[in-house]
Amino acid sequence: MPETMSIERRKLLKALGANLVLTEGAKGMKGAIQKAEEIVASNPEQFLLLQQFSNPANPEIHEKTTGPEIWEDTDGQVDVFISGVGTGGTLTGVSRYIKNTKGKKDLITVAVEPTDSPVIAQALAGGRAQAGSAQNSGYRRRLHSWQPGSEAGRQSDRHYQRGSYLHGAPPDGRRRHPGGYLFRGRRCRRAEAAGR
């Protein structure tokens, strides 16, 4: 993984038994994937590369599970889906479900990616796009940084009409990134309303 990944993520992977190989942060996920491919090529009998970025099972599981859950939880009242993006599986699967299965073709999907590893933005800015689920999804996307005062919030104020229903999906659970910006004393309005 890129050396820019959080300490919490490193600790979690080590606790699960992983041997971490950190790659140059400036090369982002592309560099980490290249290193993983080298490791597998060096001993294909010992290593297996699951290809989470291009494995169709990744978005398919979100199309079958996360999409229906969001649709049910919002009673179908979702106009904008905002998702943190790593592999693109959640973003693609949920968007497919809402657009294709439920027929809401005007859904706007907003991808929020880490500033220290902007895989999609790098590809769109002239790098070669990888054959990953997010790049090939065909869904309208806006790219924004995942940071305090992020562009995602400003764009939602500018582009979405009052009365629009926005649904956000953080990329991982709170337990995986307790030191991250999102969890420094901030609580979801819905959770506060429910007394949690």
UniProtKB/TrEMBL annotation:
Enzyme class: transferase
Necessary cofactors: pyridoxal 5'-phosphate
Name the UniProt record assigns to this protein: cysteine synthase
Species of provenance: Klebsiella pneumoniae subsp. ozaenae
Pathway of action: Amino-acid biosynthesis; L-cysteine biosynthesis; L-cysteine from L-serine: step 2/2
Catalytic activity as recorded in UniProt: O-acetyl-L-serine + hydrogen sulfide = L-cysteine + acetate
Entry EC no(s): 2.5.1.47
PANTHER family per the UniProt record, alphabetical: CYSTATHIONINE BETA-SYNTHASE (PTHR10314)
Keywords: Pyridoxal phosphate, Transferase
Gene behind the chain: cysK_2
Region (Disordered): 128-181
SUPFAM superfamilies named in the record: Tryptophan synthase beta subunit-like PLP-dependent enzymes
Molecular-function GO term, any one: cysteine synthase activity
Domain Tryptophan synthase beta chain-like PALP: 1-135
InterPro entries from the UniProt entry: Cys_Synth/Cystath_Beta-Synth, TrpB-like_PALP, TrpB-like_PALP_sf
